[in-house]
Specification:
The complex is a heterodimer of chains A (about 1500) and B (about 270). Helix content of chain A is about 45%, strand content about 5%. Chain A has about 1500 residues and is α+β, with helices and mostly antiparallel strands. The radius of gyration of chain A is 44 Å and the shape is globular. In chain A, about 35% of the residues are buried. The chains are: A alpha+beta (about 1500), B mainly beta (about 270).
Chain lengths: ~1500, ~270
């Protein structure tokens, strides 16, 4: 086919098509480029840069303004200093040095003419300048003359210094020359030495060798000579330089100061420049170009390759780009390490009204209003906005101590209103403040302070982001804690989560926020920001405040954690923190293995052998006894095998139930550690009656509003609709059956308990008065509250105010007595300790026994039972003996509900319930169903009741909190919570919750008529509720759990009709407040089971781990209820001169403080406001009557309550040495007068962090003083601390680990003066060990072992060789009537007098205390315990013979020797007393023949 | 502050000092005295015996009694303190005759299981000698508000010597930890203008710079003697202080100042 012009497609069309598509592509490319170029984050960054530039500029300008005068004076000063005459002597010295050097070097006379002429002309010029200065003083017109003269002098000075320099240069040249020469000479020497080596090896002649040897010596001599020369030259040169430096010193100082200031200004300018866009930068930001140039506007990301995200099937590195927009997030305020540069302020703190004082008279009129304003008020304004665009009246800066600064204005504040006038530009403010105010009065100003996100800084730089924090940003990034999509750079795609609906609406409007369902780790809203801490912190104490972080690091989370522990949520919901024995995945809250309970139940088996009985008993007492447990387990296994074999000759002795229980005794890989939170119900009938128990089960809060027992019955909010009336009626009918069956079953199922009775030697009848005092002082109030004792509210145990109504019977009284006396007898796993309420032999005022013996347990019981209470059980069944016909019917119906199943039709079940289950079915039945066998159906109601009760206990999981006989082997009934924080929301049954919330469950009350379509509008509710409603609307976990805790049965709304009664929701309602609920949610949401790489998990150093472990035990036994574990910590800021200097004291050298230079320097640093800072540990002095911190006037006198004119102060008793303005304040010497806040408790400027523990001690303080005054009116309050449980801050430094361990396991009476004695908590050896290690670690002492050389024979032998008789002499001091034995018992010796003045027995010190502590304590007890009454007995006097001390007749030696002797004696008291008796005379010799035959030692022989 | 200002201030101080010197030297500062007598209005009963339960053999012989309120001749209230109040950081001119008063040590004796005297005055820098005339061991515990507290044993062969560098706002209790019933009160001031009422309740403070001063009235049972009527001179305020005008060259006589027995807790 011939070629034609024709194409397949029409050319024209194609042109149009290609043209159009090319255009389209270009447009698309442009659009793409534009879209890419205008990404959201750029705008945020540019705005932030502008803000930063302005703020730094303000700081720079302030600095400049502040030092403007100084800057000006610098040049004047430098001129003045350079024209100042210099001492002729120094010039003479200089010349002298040169002359003597010349003489030494034998250089011909040096010509000093030019030096002298330079010196003369300088001195002349200098004098001229001085004269003019003197004559022209204060005359500005002649200043020019002065200036000229000074400049001339400066010039002359430089000529003179040039002369100096010439000499110095010459000296330098010479030195250098010599050094060079020596270098060559040394090389020659080395060469000669090697030449000699060659000669020796080559066998050269001796002569040749000698010749070279001579050469070597010559070189060596020359080197030595040169070295000497160099040292002369060096010293000559440095001497010259020293003189010049001396002449120049003042000038250098001033110049250095000026340069430092200039450097700072330049640095700030650079910073401003970096944050300001210039033309070049602007160009580089252009599309394409910006890809080539890495400008200042760019994505800022942290790459975390090991901190991965789980993308299902793959672990992906994290890229956190949050800082791209949150630029200032880790920026500390200028001059601080961890204060946020741009704090996030609350709305109240952002809108402030300040009072600005105006000058006393009108300022001078000036042309520039701005300058006039600065002169008058010390404030400069700026017309720009800090962020965003538009005009504002911005405070550029306020000069320190100016009127503006005093009013509280800060750089960056926006002035909104002055007087009543809204202001929009600086001019209006300037003219108002300079023209329209009344002079000498104050003007009200409304300002707005602070910035919005993302321009703000993280509030806790001490904890996060900063390099000094435990979570530096480079290592941890952001999203591991916050969640969200870290790689996102646009607001919506980063998965921010609003904190309430208001915020959500605002975000949606302003930033296009939406709920991105596809990102499964949405950011935690602010309210749950702490949840994720548990990803890495698996132990609560690791999140609690410490000395370094006194501000609670995660207060909400810790509260939630504590609530979960206190309310025993883990009884039903296992929170397992392990994935295998060594892999932690989260907090571990699980019940301890039920060894004790199982053993308790096994003891009911009559077939136990004596050994088995013993093992079981041991297990009941100490479930940690693994040997007994294994032995028992083997025995039971063996017995159960016998049962299986069925050999009639070898029948099992134990019951089938015991065989089954044996399973519970098996080893557990990683056992849980939590005890059940409720009391044991094993012997319940010995304690309470039917009525009380019925009422309690029905509604626990009725009897005790503060109880932790939740409500199971009567939760019918979901059945309120009229159409659910029949469901409601059914629930009520069955619930009352459940309650009655439970009550009767628990009482009938209870074991027999043997009450304790008062000992026979008690002579006095119980007294409520005595009981009240005992109740108050024996420690009860450390754990229990009681209405009769306002001022202390502990909640470790139940509130005891109404206890008399509970035990309103004979058995109640008997039980209470037994309980008080030995709580473990009734409930082996109780945390209530044995208080040693032994009979007390009364003593009279002189300490003599009166013959009266009282029983404190009986006294306390009588007191508690004597308190009138207006409570009575209500709605209790009238006939307690017989079930009414209605009740019986309901019982039977409920039993039918339980029995009927897929395999047992309802008709059949009804038959069973009527007649019992045929006996032949027994093998197929579950154990509780066997209760209904025909053979057991003699008492039909009884059988049904037992059956229903057992099923009810199983249904509600009562055994999760209580020890109930027969339920030892049961497992928790609830869902596991270990990863609930990531639970798939599709698995949450929301059911008809929205309908319920719109109707009967409306959060604002009963709004049955409200809405009716769709979901509730979150906007209708308060901020907190709105969050959860929104969360429910989007079917999230947060909302689900909120509603579950609020109304646990509400998800059953409208589902009950199709659910059997026993299939319905059973979660009880806990009495949480809204805040507590949120805290619990915070904790549960953090249970995500997503452990990051091991290196990120909190793994404290051994000492810190010991502290974490110990705190868990401290909390378990509420040690802090009585003991102060840490004193208050006050972080204070103060002006110079607030504190007088401490008085100096003379004391033993080893008591001198070890000053840390770094800390001294830190204490001398002033902050931006010119304030010093200090960290005080201790307690303010308390009022003896009220026990509250007393306020004093500036003289140190207590302030009257109505005195509001004087400045208030606290007298602060230090418990830790403290540095204030570089001066050391020592414990036990002087109190500090700390300016107090006028508004509340704490320092005037700073923060008071509360003490940890010791509530009871502080509560009792005024009470014991009052009580002591009854017998001794002279009693002084300061000593009362010594009668109370001691503070334990430095316990580890004080006591020996081994002793403390034994003491915790079995506390002995230690201090006769203390009103109570340490109770016995029956803790395990492991728990005691953890406490011991805690105390040692917390006070920085050695652990777990400490070495005590003083107790080693080698040390003693050495010490005694140096000073024989020292032990006997030390004993002289101990037993001298004037010293130790005045107040201390020593072995069998008892001192005379009032027990409140007695100290511990000294014979036991060697076991109890650490040697260094004993030395320091005896040397100056107040330095350790500021309140102690123990005097200094061995007084150190550096100027006295023997350095003071006690009489030489007692102990010959210095006071230090005496002290050492005392320590050695006390630390070896056992050894010392052993020496006093001889065993040999006690040994009876054995018959001669036998001793020869056996040939053993006498002692052994005598033993036989 | 610029150097110039500093210079100015120094000059001012120097001038002031010069003026002061000339005032006391050439023109003679004028001085006056304050006298009065504290009288108990009503009966306070006999002093109670104390619970002597330590070193009973020795101490019971001396049968110490409660000295919280001691009434001497003519119903005079003994051992009350009257002293000049000075604001923090302020000082007062001291009459040349009194300047040497602090040179002699003040002696506090442990005698007969009580402190002798029961009330004492010490000036800063003055030595307080604590001795024991008893054969048994004692200790002295003195807790100060401003100065350094101490608690040291005192025996007949080991006396104590103390000086103080800070003025204390009120008389403070010295006690013996071994014998809890023992106590006395020590007032430490940086000036000599203080007095203790004698057996007849009278007191005298001499050579006070003439003019108005504030004085504190203090007694150990109640502390500051509030609202005490001082006759024509006025009344003490709620802090137990009264502004009194000391006449030049004369004596402000307060006369008998009555204190109702009830206010002393009796």
């Amino acid at each position: 086919m011939p070629a034609t012009e024709q194409t397949w497609r029409n050319h024209k069309v194609l042109h149009i098509l290609f043209g159009a598509s090319a255009l389209l592509m270009m447009l698309a490319t442009l659009w793409m480029v534009a879209k890419d170029h205008n990404r959201e984050w750029k705008q945020w960054q540019l705005t932030d840069r502008k803000k930063e530039a302005q703020v730094v500029q303000a700081r720079r300008d302030l600095l400049e303004a502040q030092f403007a005068e100084r800057m000006e004076t610098y040049s004047g000063e430098i001129r003045q200093l350079s024209s100042k005459p210099i001492p002729l002597k120094l010039i003479g010295d200089f010349q002298g040095l040169v002359e003597s050097e010349d003489l030494r070097l034998e250089i011909a006379d040096n010509n000093f003419a030019s030096l002298q002429s330079a010196a003369e002309s300088f001195l002349d010029a200098s004098k001229a300048a001085q004269d003019i200065a003197a004559a022209d003083k204060g005359d500005p017109e002649k200043a020019a003359n002065l200036r000229l003269a000074q400049e001339a002098a400066t010039k002359a000075r430089s000529t003179l210094f040039y002369q100096f320099a010439t000499y110095i240069d010459e000296a330098k040249r010479r030195e250098k020359l010599l050094v060079g020469r020596r270098k060559f000479m040394k090389a020659d020497h080395t060469a000669a030495v090697s030449e000699l080596g060659l000669l020796v090896n080559g066998g050269a002649s001796k002569d040749k060798q000698a010749e070279v040897q001579g050469k070597i010596k010559g070189f060596a001599d020359q080197v030595a000579g040169l070295t000497e020369e160099i040292s002369f030259a060096h010293s000559y040169r440095t001497s010259l330089e020293e003189i010049v430096d001396q002449l120049d010193s003042e000038l250098t100082e001033v110049a250095k100061e000026r340069d430092a200031l200039k450097t700072e200004l330049t640095r700030l300018e650079d910073q401003v420049y970096k944050n300001t866009s210039n033309v070049l930068e602007w160009v580089t930001r252009w599309p394409v170009l910006n890809a080539l140039y890495d400008g200042n506007v760019r994505i800022d990301q942290i790459w975390l390759p090991d901190m991965t995200i789980d993308f299902n099937f793959s672990q992906v590195a994290r890229f956190d780009r949050c800082k791209t927009c949150h630029r200032a997030i880790s920026q500390p305020a200028a001059g601080t390490a961890t204060d946020p540069a741009y704090p996030t302020l609350s709305e109240e703190a952002r809108n402030l009204t300040l009072k600005l004082q105006t000058p006393d008279s009108a300022p001078e009129e000036g042309s520039d209003l701005g300058e006039a304003l600065e002169d008058a008020y010390g404030m400069v304004l700026n017309g720009d906005s800090l962020v965003g665009y538009g005009d504002a009246v911005l405070v550029h800066y306020a000069l320190p101590e100016s009127l503006a600064a005093r009013a509280g204005l800060q750089s960056g504040d926006v002035i909104v209103q002055v007087g009543d006038v809204p202001v929009y530009n600086p001019a209006s403010v300037e003219s108002f403040l300079l023209k329209q105010v009344k002079w000498g009065q104050s003007v009200e100003m409304k300002i707005r302070r602070g910035l919005d996100h993302p321009y703000t800084t993280h509030p806790r730089l001490d904890l996060y982001l900063s390099d000094s924090s435990p979570h530096p940003e480079k290592v941890f990034g952001c999203t591991i804690c916050h969640d969200g999509q870290g790689s996102g750079t646009e607001f919506p795609w980063t998965s921010h989560t609003p904190n309430n609906s208001k915020q959500q609406v605002q975000w949606a409007r302003e930033h296009g926020w939406f709920d991105n369902h596809h990102w499964i780790f949405p950011m935690k809203p602010a309210r749950f920001a702490q949840s994720n801490c548990t990803k890495c912190h698996y132990d609560k104490p690791g999140l609690e405040p410490t000395e370094r972080f006194p501000e609670p690091p995660a207060a909400d989370l810790v509260e939630g954690w504590t609530l979960v522990e206190k309310y025993g949520c883990f009884g039903c919901h296992e929170i397992g923190g392990y994935d295998g024995p060594d892999t932690r995945i989260g907090p571990d809250l699980r019940l301890e293995p039920n060894y004790s309970e199982a053993a308790h139940q096994i003891l009911r088996d009559g077939g136990l052998s004596a050994d088995e009985h013993r093992w079981a008993e041991s297990l009941v007492e100490t479930p940690g006894d693994a040997a007994a447990r294994r032995d028992l387990l083997i025995a039971i296994k063996h017995d159960s095998q016998l049962a299986k074999r069925g050999n009639p000759e070898e029948l099992p002795k134990l019951s089938a139930a015991t065989h089954k229980l044996g399973q519970s005794l098996k080893d557990v890989e990683v056992p849980g550690t939590y005890r059940k939170v409720g009391p044991s119900l094993r012997y319940l009938s010995s304690k309470v009656d039917f009525d009380w128990l019925y009422s309690w089960i029905r509604k626990p809060a009725d009897f005790r509003p503060t109880t932790r027992m939740p409500q199971f019955f009567g939760l019918h909010e979901h059945l309120k609709d009229p159409e659910d009336a029949s469901e409601l009626a059914e629930s009520q009918r069955y619930e009352s059956v459940e309650i009655r069956a439970l009550t009767e079953f628990l009482l009938e199922n209870s074991g027999k308990f043997t009450y304790l009775t008062p000992p026979e030697n008690v002579t006095e009848a119980p007294s409520a008065d005595r009981g009240k005092w005992q109740f108050e002082t024996r420690g009860c109030l450390a754990c229990h509250s009681h209405e009769g004792f306002p001022g202390i509210a502990a909640n470790q145990g139940p509130d005891l105010s109404r206890i008399s109504a509970k035990f309103d019977s004979e058995k109640g009284a008997l039980w209470l007595y037994s309980w008080l006396k030995q709580p473990h007898l009734y409930h082996t796993r109780t945390k209530m300790p044995d208080l040693y309420l032994e009979p007390i032999a009364e003593k009279d005022a002189t300490g003599q026994p009166t013959g009266k013996v009282t029983d404190p347990a009986a006294d306390i019981a009588v007191f508690l039972l004597g308190q009138p209470v207006e409570w009575e059980p209500t709605d209790v069944p009238a006939d307690k003996k017989q079930w009414s016909t209605d009740e019986q019917e309901a019982l039977a119906d409920l039993a039918v509900e339980w029995l009927s199943s897929d395999s047992v039709p309802k008709v059949r079940a009804e038959q069973f319930v009527k007649q019992g289950i045929p006996n032949h079915l027994e093998p197929k039945l579950k154990s509780d169903e066997r209760l209904l066998l025909e053979k057991n159906f003699g008492d039909r109601v009884g059988a049904l009741k037992k059956f229903v009760a057992r099923r009810t206990i199983g249904k509600y999981g009562c055994f999760g909190c209580h020890d109930i006989p027969g339920f030892e082997g049961e497992k928790p009934i609830g869902t596991s919570l270990a990863d609930w924080g990531r639970k798939e929301t599709s698995k949450l049954a929301f059911e008809n919750i929205h309908k319920f919330l719109e109707g009967p469950g409306h959060p604002d009350g009963d709004h049955a008529a409200h809405g009716g379509h769709g979901h509730l509008d979150p906007g209708d509710f308060d901020d907190d509720t709105s969050y959860y409603i929104q969360s429910l609307n989007s079917h999230s976990r947060d909302g689900f759990i909120w509603q579950k805790l609020r109304m646990p049965r509400s998800y059953d709304y409208k589902t009950t009709r199709n659910k059997g009664f026993n299939e319905r929701l059973r979660m009880p309602k806990f009495p949480f407040s809204a805040e507590e609920r949120e805290a619990v949610i915070t904790f549960v949401l953090g249970l995500v089971s997503e452990p990051p790489a091991e290196k990120f998990v909190y793994q404290p150093a051994p000492a810190q781990q010991a502290i974490v472990d110990g705190r868990t035990v401290l909390e378990r036994f509420n040690c802090a209820g009585c003991h102060t574990l840490d004193m208050e910590q006050w972080k204070i800021a103060f002006e110079e001169g607030t504190f007088e200097s401490p008085s100096s004291v003379v004391d033993f050298p080893f008591l001198a403080p070890h000053l840390d230079a770094k800390k001294v320097a830190e204490s001398l640093v002033k902050d931006d406001r010119g304030h010093y800072h200090a960290d005080l540990h201790g307690l303010p002095v308390m009022n003896e009557q009220t026990g509250l911190a007393e306020r004093f006037d500036e003289d140190g006198l207590p302030l009257e309550p109505d005195d509001d004119e004087s400045d208030p102060y606290y007298r602060f008793t230090l418990w830790k040495d403290t540095l204030i303005e570089g001066e050391e304040w020592l414990v036990g010497l002087q109190d500090l007068m700390v300016p107090a806040s006028r508004d509340g408790y704490g320092p005037n400027d700073g923060q008071a962090y509360p003490a940890w523990g010791g509530d009871l001690a502080r509560y009792l303080y005024p009470h014991v003083i009052e009580h002591a005054k009854l017998t001794n009116p002279q009693v002084k309050g300061s000593e009362a601390w010594g009668w109370l449980p001691p503070p334990l801050m430095n316990e580890g430094e004080k006591v020996q680990s081994d002793w403390l361990h034994g003491f915790l396991m079995d506390p002995t009476e230690l201090r006769p003066a203390v009103v109570m004695r340490m109770p016995n908590f029956r803790m395990s050896s492991d728990e005691a060990a953890k406490l011991v290690n805690y105390f040692a670690a917390a006070s920085g002492a050695e652990f777990p072992y400490e070495y005590k050389p003083q107790q080693r024979a080698s040390y003693l032998a050495q010490a005694e060789a140096a000073h024989p008789e020292r032990m006997n002499q030390a004993m002289n001091i101990v037993v001298d009537g004037n010293y130790c034995v005045k107040c201390h018992a020593v072995a069998d010796f008892q001192p005379q007098g009032d027990v409140s003045t007695f100290g511990p027995n000294l014979a036991n010190v060697y076991r109890r205390l650490r040697p260094e502590y004993v030395r320091n304590w005896v040397a100056n007890p107040k330095r350790i315990l500021p309140y102690t009454g123990m005097p200094v007995n061995v007084i150190y006097k550096p100027d006295a013979p023997h350095l003071g001390g006690v009489a030489q007749a007692l102990f010959a030696g210095t006071s230090i020797d005496q002290l050492r002797g005392l320590v050695d004696l006390l630390m070896n008291f056992d050894v010392y007393t052993e020496r006093q008796i001889s065993i040999t005379p006690l040994v009876k010799s054995a018959p001669a023949d036998e001793s020869q035959a056996t040939n053993v030692g006498g002692a052994d022989a005598s033993r036989r | 502050m610029s150097d110039f200002q500093g210079l100015q201030r120094t000059t001012c101080i120097a001038l002031a000092l010069a003026l002061l010197a000339s005032a006391s030297g050439v023109f003679a500062q004028e001085w006056g005295s304050l006298t009065g007598r504290l009288v108990v209005d009503g009966s306070v009963g006999d002093p109670a015996a104390l619970n002597v339960n330590k070193d009973t053999e020795y101490c019971s012989q001396h049968s110490p009694t409660d000295e919280t309120v001691v009434v001497g001749e003519d119903d005079g209230l003994t051992n009350a303190f009257v002293y000049l109040y000075l604001k923090r950081g302020k000082s007062v001119d001291v009459h040349p005759d009194l300047e040497s008063a602090a040179a002699e040590p003040v002696v506090l004796d442990n005698k007969g299981c009580r402190f002798e005297p029961h009330a004492l005055l010490v000036q800063t820098g003055q030595e307080l000698k604590i001795i024991s005339s008893d054969p048994i061991g004692h200790n002295t515990k003195l807790d100060l508000i401003k100065g350094v507290s101490f608690n040291q044993s005192v025996n007949s062969d080991t006396p104590l010597s103390k000086t103080f560098d800070k003025s204390e706002p009120v008389p403070l209790t010295a006690s013996c930890s071994i014998h809890p019933w023992m106590n006395c009160h020590v007032l430490i001031r940086d000036n000599p203008y203080m007095a203790i009422t004698g057996e007849d309740g009278s007191f005298e403070i001499k050579n006070i710079p003439a003019g108005e001063h504030e004085f504190i009235f203090w007694q150990e049972a109640v502390g500051n003697l509030k609202n005490l009527s001082l006759g024509s001179a006025g009344k003490t305020n709620r802090k137990g202080r009264a502004k009194l005008k000391i006449p030049a060259g004369g004596t402000l006589e307060l006369g008998d100042v009555k204190i109702p027995a009830a206010t002393l807790g009796k």
